[in-house]
Structures are given as structure tokens and as C-alpha cells.
Specification:
By secondary structure, the chain is mostly helical. It has one domain. The protein is built from two helices and no strands. The chain is rod-shaped, with a radius of gyration of 25 Å. 0% of the residues are buried.
Length: 86
């Protein structure tokens, strides 16, 4: 019967398209959230390294830790500058 059209089948196709769009938007939002969390963790690591550097009496160890912390902070700030604007 070619003239028969199931209205529920057509409605299900529309709902499926909406669900696919919502899933895609959710995936993109999760990826953005993961970037923000990663940046936060790396900045916390910078703070930890700076606090750790203060505990050493050897100046070269302090300088080394501060250099690593500075490099990590520059990396994080460059990545944060590339985050999508909300």
C-alpha cells in the first residue's frame, strides 16, 4: 500500500534527529568542560610546584622548580587563550 503513511514513524524520525543534535551538542560541551578542568588542574600544579620550591634550601633546585612552573603556566595560559568564547 504505497499511499499509507505511518504518522508515528515520521514523528519518530523527527525526534531521532533532535536527539542526535542534542547528543552532538552535549559532546561538544563535555569537550569544552574537559579543557577547563584540565587547565584548572595544571594551574593547581603550578601552585604546588611554587610552594614546593620554597621548601628547598639549594638555590638550583628552587630555580629549576620555578622554571618548570613558569613553563607550565605559560603553556596553560596559551591554551586558555584558545578556549572558545561563551
Amino acid at each position: 500500500m504505497p499511499e499509507y503513511h505511518n504518522a508515528l514513524l515520521e514523528k519518530s524520525a523527527e525526534i531521532n534527529k533532535e536527539a542526535t543534535a542534542a547528543f552532538t551538542a552535549g559532546t561538544e560541551a563535555r569537550e569544552i568542560a574537559d579543557k577547563y578542568v584540565r587547565g584548572t588542574v595544571l594551574l593547581a600544579t603550578v601552585l604546588f610546584l611554587i610552594a614546593l620550591a620554597q621548601r628547598f634550601k639549594v638555590i638550583n633546585v628552587r630555580r629549576g622548580l620555578l622554571l618548570v612552573a613558569t613553563g607550565l603556566m605559560v603553556y596553560v595560559l596559551v591554551n586558555m587563550a584558545m578556549y572558545p568564547r561563551l
